[in-house]
């Protein structure tokens, strides 16, 4: 038998370090060749590492969330064990004094609890009636550990209806941010720290657009996807951005260079089980309404399933973010740096609106937006949103050239 050391390999593309996201093995495990060892995350992707040899795990190195440089030892394996070595049997350890405590003695609220003066005083200060604390001490005595355990569980309702009949909650739970969630936090922090955000909210009347959307969905053929509002907003961006090139742009604030793009690559902020991701609908300017809807559905589904490639998550020039039915009245979206603008449709509501001296029920929506004030003046931001408003409120213009 021999020992094999598995090190964090050079993943390429200039990656010098990686973060440990998930361990698939533990000490004592017997592994076959190509069995998953650990998932690591770089700035570019999450990569699953597999073992190049069979063997037993002698040691693992690195905690979840720890960032290690390329070449660091990840796993030590004992090779050549084959089928001769059985998996290690679980070792039963002697119970600790806490785990061996007897079952709590049941009491009714009328029982007078036994407890030391210090325990009584602490319970009084916390507003906890001792008769509701399960006791494990001799003769049904409430011990300090019993009181601590009761507090950790959040306490119970004493049912007296009097002030102080509920135990105070004192638990604190720590969760270390790792992997994608940590990357999202860092990206948001950098965007908020480095970009002076200018917010703008405008009210849109979507009555005509909603009527058109319902009609198109009713008449669609089998190969046509169901239309949401977002493909219409993508089409509106396609028609509006050429007049505002500084908004379809990426700003390199290190070198002080603004790169305006003729191509329109729309990032779609998407909530996934792993956190917020922004897959990209590329070359929206070359897609019709149905193709926008089809590609939007494909990339967002891939993001939720964890099947997106690095190329599908990078390269956006402007971002759309929507919370759908829970979109609220308004929002303050954070710009997806190095972009300079983000557009956020809020939820649809029906409400009375005064029009031409009469009141009618209209389908309304607020549009929230944020702009990098270093690049986009408030006046230009307002003109841009008003241009979007014109197209959305008169949806026939979305399909007319030269408007």
Structure notes:
This protein is an alpha+beta fold and 403 residues long. The chain has three domains: 78 residues, RNA polymerase II/Efflux pump adaptor protein, barrel-sandwich hybrid domain (OB fold (Dihydrolipoamide Acetyltransferase, E2P), Beta Barrel), CATH 2.40.50.100; 75 residues, no CATH class; 204 residues, Chloramphenicol Acetyltransferase. Strands 11, 14, 15, 16, 17, 18 and 19 form a seven-stranded mixed sheet that branches. A four-stranded antiparallel sheet has the order 1-8-6-3, with no helix packed on it. Helix 5 packs across helix 6 and helix 5 crosses helix 7. It is extended, with a radius of gyration of 30 Å.
Largest sheet: 7 strands, mixed
Number of domains: 3
SS strand fraction = 25-35%
| Overall spatial form | extended
Query: Helical percent range?
Result: 10-25%
| N-to-C series of helices and strands | EEEEEEEEEHEHHEHHEEEEEHEEEH
Tally of individual helices: 7
How many angstroms separate the termini? Answer: 76 Å
Instruction: Briefly note the CATH topology name of the largest domain.
Output: Chloramphenicol Acetyltransferase
At CATH's second level, what is the architecture of the largest domain?
A: 2-Layer Sandwich
How many β-strand stretches?
Answer: 19
- Report the structural category: alpha+beta
Task: Tell me the name of the CATH homologous superfamily of the largest domain.
Answer: Chloramphenicol acetyltransferase-like domain
**Could you report the average pLDDT, rounded to the nearest whole number?**
85
Highest-level CATH class of the largest domain: Alpha Beta
Q: What integer value in Å does the Rg equal?
A: 30 Å
Low-confidence stretches: 83-110, 156-164
């Amino acid at each position: 038998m021999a020992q094999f050391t598995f090190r964090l390999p050079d993943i390429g593309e200039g990656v010098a370090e990686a973060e440990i996201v998930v361990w698939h093995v533990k000490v004592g495990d017997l592994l076959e060749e190509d069995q998953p060892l650990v998932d690591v995350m770089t700035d570019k992707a999450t990569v699953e590492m597999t073992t190049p040899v069979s063997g037993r795990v002698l040691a693992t190195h690195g905690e979840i969330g720890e960032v290690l440089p390329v070449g660091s030892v990840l796993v030590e394996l004992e090779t050549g064990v084959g089928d001769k070595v059985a998996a290690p049997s679980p070792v039963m350890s002697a119970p600790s004094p806490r785990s061996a405590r007897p079952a709590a003695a049941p009491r009714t609220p009328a029982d007078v609890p036994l407890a030391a003066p210090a325990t009584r005083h602490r319970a009084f200060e916390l507003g906890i009636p001792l008769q509701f604390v399960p006791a494990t001490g001799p003769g049904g005595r409430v011990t300090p550990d019993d009181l601590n355990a009761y507090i950790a569980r959040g306490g119970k309702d004493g049912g007296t209806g009097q002030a102080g009949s509920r135990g105070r909650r004192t638990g604190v739970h720590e969760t270390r941010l790792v992997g994608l969630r940590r990357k999202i936090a860092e990206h948001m922090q950098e965007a908020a720290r480095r970009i002076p955000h200018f917010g703008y909210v405008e009210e849109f009347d979507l009555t005509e657009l909603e009527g058109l959307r319902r009609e198109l969905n009713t008449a669609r053929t089998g190969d046509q996807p169901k239309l949401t509002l977002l493909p219409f907003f993508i089409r509106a961006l396609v028609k509006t951005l050429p007049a505002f090139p500084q908004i379809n742009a990426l700003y390199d604030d290190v070198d002080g260079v603004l790169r305006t793009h003729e191509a329109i690559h729309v990032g779609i902020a998407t909530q996934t089980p792993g956190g917020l991701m922004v897959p990209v609908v590329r070359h929206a300017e070359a897609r019709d309404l149905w193709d926008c809807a089809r590609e939007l559905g494909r990339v967002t589904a891939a993001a939720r399933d964890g099947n997106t490639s690095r190329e599908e998550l990078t390269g956006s020039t402007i971002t759309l973010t929507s919370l759908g039915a829970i979109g609220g009245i308004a929002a303050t979206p954070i710009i997806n740096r190095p972009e300079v603008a983000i557009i956020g449709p809020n939820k649809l509501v029906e409400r009375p609106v005064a029009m031409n001296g009469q009141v009618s029920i209209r389908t309304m929506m607020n549009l929230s937006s944020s702009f990098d004030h270093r690049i986009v003046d408030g006046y230009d931001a307002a003109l841009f949103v008003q241009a979007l408003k014109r197209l959305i409120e008169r949806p026939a213009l979305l399909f007319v050239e030269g408007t």
